[in-house]
User: Which sequence fits this backbone?
């Protein structure tokens, strides 16, 4: 279960467009090095390192040392935990309600079909 403090870190990390772009790039090319990633931005490598630190503190990025290169990987689990906290409960409720509405509509359609078969078009 994700804590409120964990969520604060995730929302803070996702609030900056450069960090969201970093996550997009790492998602599209898992295992890319920090130097390679930094080439995609018009900011200093130090600025990118600061953004990476925020993303790692939020648990959205994990890095693995590979010689002199630091390889980056997206960790979507914090986002999934936030999704499950609100959206899954919400979608579960509406899935139940939609099932009820579908069954009611099918029941009405069957009654109407039965009336047509019996010659009652009322």
Assistant:
């Amino acid at each position: 279960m994700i804590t409120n403090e964990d969520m604060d870190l995730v929302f803070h990390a996702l609030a900056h467009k450069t960090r969201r772009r970093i996550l997009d790039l790492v998602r599209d090319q898992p295992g890319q090095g920090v130097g390679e990633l930094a080439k995609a931005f018009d900011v200093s490598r130090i600025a990118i390192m600061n953004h990476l630190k925020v993303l790692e503190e939020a648990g959205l990025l994990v890095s693995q040392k590979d010689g002199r290169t630091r390889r980056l990987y997206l960790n979507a689990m914090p986002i999934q935990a936030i999704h499950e906290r609100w959206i899954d409960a919400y979608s579960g409720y509406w899935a139940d309600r939609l099932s009820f509405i579908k069954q009611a509509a099918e029941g009405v359609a069957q009654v109407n079909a039965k009336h047509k078969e019996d010659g009652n078009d009322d």
